[in-house]
């Protein structure tokens, strides 16, 4: 009999090596050959996937020899790998390009800095020749860029050649980072590319970052500094947003300010700068404009002392500016990834609530109610750190909050606190406030928070006691469920079953309570099985299956029944198991169930049923050679016993033996924890003919020979 042994196979994913990069707008007239018409760089357009060829990423600036040898290939390889993991993308590297002609075109495609966000290809240019080649090879986009370095700072400027629109575009703002963050930059580059191409295909829109608006007639040296820093500040803000925001980011020219906006722009980010020399104050107010509908928001101003202006100051400014804008975009962007729409503005939603909170915070950054409301929105959007910041700001003004909001604030702070002791303190305060307001259901919610913090601290007994002494526990489904889980995790499964049964009396179809109860009964059954209490094990496994059917439970019940010699019931349990759908996670268990089922029919002498189900087993196990070898062996033994009058040669012509011979040579039963005692005992008792005994010995030698590597 085969005892279940789960094995985990680790699949080593090897990164693909792709080259990548650079920009070209001039003409290439030295083409000597064309790609063969039969070759398609980007394969056949057999589905709706976005087909991208990753090109070159040439570097400019101060790169040492080690970086020059590996940097662009490492960057391109990681971009290609990240893109290739997406189900809606077909990604190809330069290894897909066979001719020198196409390689030359690709290598020169992006080797000149792009003068604007988008450039149309001229008919005579080399880039147009490349576009023609790509179109003929079913490529939709060529991806590349320029990598430059100043000191320890890297700048990656992205480019995309759009085959259909005959243009080369700068799809999002350049990314910045240090030389130690190459992989992080590549991941951010790939993420922005995915967002850009998906939205481009779906006709969705992007975020445009514009330069800050400075006050007129600035005195020197501010006017000169403003001119020099406008582009730098814009690019740094855009780069920060590109990393923290899921929306595609673009930049506009600082020298050509315009009140017009492209049709594919959904949000414009800019800001107003004011300088008050009298009190040495420098203030920047981020501003976000929503295009559809026309909607403008000024965010909380950032204030600095002029005396502190330095390189580190501008780094701090751009970081804080981008953080405010990023928070705004996260808060007003629905889960669908679409930028705020008219429906959101006019309806009641998290996004509308966030807008109202930003309105209040622009006038009074210390508004406690607005900070609390915005924090709740951010928490529901899985932005826990941003939510925590808003909750702490609300705490600074908690005296202005209503008693209910103060209780809610403490619950919120408890949910995002990073230390369990801090969590517990907030929840204790929240419970006291709720009880003062006679809000018993909310007080129970706070108690669950206290118990959770205690349990995470390792104080399991205290957590369970906290839950048990909760008033009205027997009528609180959520608390009963949580107590049941804590009891299970504390290895008190019998107590857990009683608590979870009480929970199901309140809501019989509660999925989580049913799953937990099934798990508790299964654990009890496993303990009984190990202790040799097979009757109790069968009972507990059966109860577990009552609340959550699974192949593993039927398998375990079958094992327990077989241990008691009840092969009829064991076969029934295995039959129930193999009729359930199997996936990769329980494939090994399913294979063991099939083999044990065949062994049961062999032991019971039901040879016809053995062969009938044996054929089904061999079909199921066709991709598991070791298990299939064992299945065919059991079938042959069954045929041998069922047909004592048949010769060995006749038996070799029947399906069981033909299937046995069809198993790959490397297969072996030695890879399994399989006990052959039962089958050997039956053979020893019922096979007496010398030729048949020798035949069986030959079969055993083949089944249990030293395993080989399966090809």
Helical content stands at: 40-55%
Q: Spell out the CATH superfamily of the domain at 50-203.
A: TolB, N-terminal domain
Instruction: Report the oligomer.
Output: single chain
Q: Strand percentage, roughly?
A: 5-15%
CATH architecture of the domain at 50-203: 3-Layer(aba) Sandwich
Briefly, what CATH class of the domain at 50-203? Alpha Beta
Over all CA atoms, what is the radius of gyration?
35 Å
The residue ranges in which pLDDT falls below 50 over 5 or more consecutive positions are 3-38, 340-346
Question: How many angstroms separate the termini?
Answer: 27 Å
Structure classification: alpha/beta
What is the overall number of helices?
27
* Biggest sheet architecture: 8 strands, mixed
The count of strands amounts to: 14
Mean pLDDT: 81
The name of the CATH topology of the domain at 50-203 is Rossmann fold
Shape category: flat
Describe the structure.
- There is one protein chain.
- Helices cover 53% and strands 11% of the residues.
- It has 711 residues and is α/β, with parallel strands linked by helices.
- Among the domains are: 50-203, 3-Layer(aba) Sandwich (Rossmann fold); 204-337, Rossmann fold, CATH 3.40.50; 582-703, no CATH class.
- The strands form two sheets. Strands 1, 2, 3, 4, 5, 6, 7 and 8 form an eight-stranded mixed beta sheet that branches. Strands 9, 10, 11, 12, 13 and 14 form a six-stranded mixed beta sheet that branches.
- Helix 1 runs parallel beside helix 4 and helix 21 runs antiparallel to helix 22 (607-620).
- The longest helix is centred in the first third of the chain and has 23 residues, at 222-244.
- The two termini are 27 Å apart.
